[in-house]
Design goal:
Layout lengths: L5 E4 L5 H8 L3 E5 L20 E4 L7 H5 L6 E4 L9 H6 L3 E3 L6 H16 L2 H9 L21 E5 L3 H10 L5 E5 L15 H7 L2 E4 L13 H7 L4 E4 L8 H9 L5 E4 L18 E3 L8 H19 L12 H4 L9
Parallel strand pairs: 1-2, 1-3, 3-4, 4-5, 6-7, 6-8, 8-9, 9-10, 10-11
Helix pairs in contact: 4-6, 7-8
């Protein structure tokens, strides 16, 4: 339809998701660069682009916003928005939305899965059998395994994903504690005022933080040391929450016992330092990669697109822009 809003995509969406976007918008281009700049805007489209649907790990810079004079909406497919310049967006009258809680159950499911993989040495055991090294039964081949039962799990960030993680962990007979920006009144878990206090208390630390620049390398060498030699850390939030160099050093020198990452500072991960660490379980940022999560996130993006281009408040603005999204000064299509 000639009057459909023009959008760009900055992520490799499924055919079904693209079909949903196409029902309400005209997709006029795709940007393949994982860190796009104004040079990646498809030729001939800059003057007409009204919205971009991408991810927070791809993001958008001030320079790219400046190159798109009609841009009024940036939709993050998923929870994160860490590489979106929010100050520039507000200054340039561009609304930013995200996936909010749409993939929380699925990400929590993976968090528990890779925690088990790390603590029970599942990947290492699988490789051992495939290499033909299981020639006799040897107790404690990978060292004494504590198991989750009776352990203490610390959740750093008790938002939607953190709550879903806690809900799933209750069946493992563990103690659960948390650190959050503010103490919650709707849970009875022990509250810790900072990450150092939480790491000192717990055996297993799961990072579920909201992604923003204030959390960069919050899991550093000091936190890992506080977690201790039987500790494990799991990150399913955003890669930059963990200092990867400090983590590699901690694993090599037995500062902690193990770790599991679904997210990395740069994605795709192209480094080599982490690849050599048998005590590290890695998955390619697919916590929200289930069919159920994809449907929920697609639906949320579509609702944001529909509302914005109908002149209504968007459904899920990023937290920093919620006040603006519901005001009379909120961005309008142009």
């Amino acid at each position: 339809m000639a009057d459909q809003p023009h959008i760009l995509t900055g992520f490799h969406f499924t055919k079904a998701t693209l079909a949903s976007f196409s029902e309400r918008c005209k997709i006029i281009g795709q940007m393949d660069n994982p860190t796009p700049t104004a040079a990646d805007i498809p030729p001939g489209t800059a003057a007409t682009v009204q919205a971009i649907v991408s991810t927070g790990s791809v993001g958008i810079s001030d320079a790219m916003m400046a190159a798109l004079p009609r841009l009024s909406l940036f939709c993050c497919y998923g929870t994160g928005y860490e590489r979106v310049d929010l100050d520039a967006a507000r200054r340039r009258n561009i609304m930013v939305t995200h996936g909010a809680d749409a993939n929380a159950p699925d990400v929590a499911e993976l968090a528990v899965g890779i925690l088990l993989a790390s603590t029970r040495r599942l990947v290492r055991a699988d490789k051992m059998i495939r290499r033909g090294e299981w020639k006799q039964r040897i107790p404690n081949r990978f060292g004494a395994i504590a198991g989750l039962t009776g352990g203490r799990v610390g959740i750093l960030g008790l938002g939607a994903i953190g709550l879903e993680v806690a809900r799933r962990l209750k069946g493992f007979d563990v103690e659960i504690g948390y650190c959050n920006r503010n103490k919650r009144s709707d849970v009875d878990f022990p509250y810790f005022p900072d990450v150092m206090a939480l790491a000192t208390w717990c055996d297993y630390l799961i990072v579920c933080l909201r992604s923003d620049s204030s959390n960069r390398h919050i899991i550093n060498a000091d936190v890992l040391k506080a977690l201790g030699p039987r500790g494990h850390v799991v990150n399913i939030s955003r890669g930059w929450a963990v200092d990867e160099a400090a983590l590699a050093d901690a694993l090599r020198n037995d500062v902690i016992e193990g770790a599991a990452l679904d997210v990395f500072d740069e994605e795709p991960y192209t480094g080599t330092e982490l690849l050599e660490l048998d005590k590290l379980v890695m998955t390619p940022h697919f916590g929200g990669g289930t069919q159920h999560a994809q449907r929920r996130m697609t639906d949320l993006v579509c609702r944001n697109l529909d509302n914005h281009f109908a002149g209504k408040p968007v459904v899920s603005p990023v937290p920093e822009l919620r006040d603006w999204a519901n005001s009379k000064d909120a961005p309008r299509p142009r």
